Every structure is written in structure tokens, then in C-alpha cells.
Amino acid sequence: MNAERVKAFLKRKQINISVQTYLIDAMGAMAFGLFASLLIGTIFETLGQKTGVELFLTISAYAKNATGAALGIAIAWALKAPQLVLFSAATVGIAGNDLGGPVGALIASIVATELGKLVSKETPVDILVTPGVTIISGVLTAQFAGPGVSAFMTAFGDLVKSATVMQPFFMGMLVSALIGIALTLPISSAAICIMLSLDGLAGGAATAGCCAQMIGFAVLSFRENGWGGLLAQGLGTSMLQMGNIVRNPRIWIPPTLASMVTGPVSTMIFHLENIPAGSGMGTCGLVGPIGIYTAMQESGSPLMWPGILLVCFLLPAVLTPLFGMLCRRAGWIHDGDMKLDL
Predict the structure, then answer these.
(1) Alpha-carbon torsion angle 89, 32, 271, 212, nearest 10
(2) pLDDT score at 6
(3) From the DSSP assignment, how many helices (H) and strands (E) are in the chain?
(4) Residue 13 pLDDT > 90
């Protein structure tokens, strides 16, 4: 009986303890928080540096400073937090991001939001209890878990980056394929790259994989989705194809094979680099190419612009349909398999 009461209470509080909730929904929302703060701030910073417009640099500074708060609110929103918990999550996100980076913000915000939801509207002094519980639990979690989590993610990211420098062919292929797959899955490749501080050659390979998925699916499904689908996937997200992938996983083969080609091309021929904020975004809002430009503008490399054009756009647009043609001839992909409801 007590177990049933607990289940009913958790259901009433909209607390659903699951991988879907915490690693897919919450991480997916992180991407929006990051885009609305750190990523857009990076774009304005680049514009400010190139145009000399001071307003762009001012906007960039404010946007980047809001990263923690944006993460906290985005995660709390994904967890269906009531108003006081949602607003209090801004403080928690700041603490989590300062002490443990985006992963610290994720963990602290999840703990704080769920505890805040438990006490929300359960006392006559809700205006004090709910934000108090949310902020205290979140800051304590950030202090306890943040430094260790940040150190682990930094060490793992350094390992990936060092391995990419030492083995640019195999690691270029691996990083490109895995991050590209993560971009299409209902998780946040942008959050993963920022969590790992994935920059340099590894960041360039990650961008290659993301672009292969987005441009690849956009071109591959053009016969089904037309120009609307091309723009929605090429400048939006390949995640739109996730439902179709569940129905026929083989449609994922062409863009993934394309990413396994463009990754090594990026690392070994053009030596493309990126910043963590742009590595996992691909052509979404052109953040990936902008990130490459931001990372490489000081180097003066003559290979940067040809690399951006070929790796981010032309190669995925050519290779994916070629692989797709082979899959169609093998009977693995049929007309209508990639149709979107746009």
C-alpha cells in the first residue's frame, strides 16, 4: 500500500525516474540552453571581432555569462518544474556550471529540480520552502559532485584529443561517426562536445560527422521532402529523421558512411579545428562552420575555407546520395522511408 502511495505521489509531482527523462529529455533541453547563451554568444563574439562593432562584443559577454542560468532553467523546464522551482533553477545552474561545467549543471539541476518538485505547494509557506529547498540542494550537489565530474570529463576529453592528434585517420573516422550519430539521436551532441571540451582536430572531426548527418539526410531525402525538408534538416537538425530511423534503421547507413570519410579528410587533409561550442552543432544555424573559422582565423591556413566548403557541405551532399543509391539498389531503402511531416 505504501509503495502505491509513493508511486501515486511521484506521479502527481510529475517525477519520472528514467534514462529517458534524465539523459535524453534533460540533455536535449541543455542544447537549447547552450544555444541561447554560450553558442549565440560565440557567434556574436566572432561578429564583434571581425566588424569591430562593440555592441556585438557586449552582447557576447552577457550571453556567455548567462550560460549557467540558461542551463538550469532549460533542464528544469524539461523536467516539468513548477514556477518557483523553474526560476530557482537559474541559481542552481550557475553554481553547477561554475563548479563542474555543463555536466555539473546537469547533475545539480536534476537533483534540485526533483527535490524542489517534491516540496512544491506542500506547505503554507511555499514561497520560501520551494526555492529554499531547490537552491540549497542544488548548490550542495554542485559543490559535492561538480569538481570531480569536471575533472573526469576534462581528462576524458584530453584523451580523445590526444588520440586524434596521434592517430588522425582512425580517430578522425571514429569521432566523426560517433558524434554525428549523437547529433541525430535524441540527445545533445553539442552538450557532449562542450562537456568534453572537444576542440582542435577532434573538434573538427566532430563537426565533419555532424555536417555529414545534417547535409547528408537533407540531400538524401530531397525527393521525399523537397526544399522545406532540405532547409529543416540542413540548417536545423537531422534528428527529424529519428522516427524514420526507428522504422528502418538502414536509412542511417549512407550519412554515417559519409561521416567516416569526411572525418579523416578533415583531420588529415585540411587539418580543420573547432572550438567546443561549435564542434557538436554541424550546420545547425551554421554554428559548426563559424566555430571552425573562430578556431582557425589566427592560423591563416589557406586550407580553412576549402576545408569548410568541402567537409561541411559538398562532400556530404555528394557522398551520402552515392551510398544511398547503393542501399536502394540493395533493397535496404525504399521511396518514402525518409518522408517527414513538415
Answers:
(1) 140
(2) 81
(3) 18, 0
(4) no
